[in-house]
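Hey L., structure's done. Input below.
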Amino acid sequence: MDYEMVSTEFNNALKNKQLIGGQCQDCGHNCIPQRQVCPKCHSHNMEVITYSGLGKLVAYTVIYVPPVDMANAGYNSKNPYCSGIVELVEGPRISAQILDVDLTNPENIEIGSQLMMTIIMRGEGENKSSYLAFSPKK
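Output:
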């Protein structure tokens, strides 16, 4: 599927279980989300690419006091969630929820662990939205 260089396309791609970003055709720099101007060389010669969805965990935190949207999704001090920074194999880093990790012993979550993209659906009917998440690669 072809995506345009506009911000709404990132969420449209997630609905299709795809992770997109931008690649500079002048210097080769990859970024996420896609941008019209390369953050490295400032070229306007950018192209939308689809990432593999594979990466590694480079940082994380366990959140016990969530923002409103996450509280509405059922998270709280007794049901925390993990948020992390994932470095994609293509280079860029992105923040996302990290699923399927032991939140009772967060010290056992390993930096460098291999992850793969997944999509979480939240909401009902017209309010249903797609959210990016990652799980340990099996």
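The first strand starts at residue 19 and ends at 24. The domain at 54-136 is CATH 2.40.50 (OB fold (Dihydrolipoamide Acetyltransferase, E2P)).

-- N.
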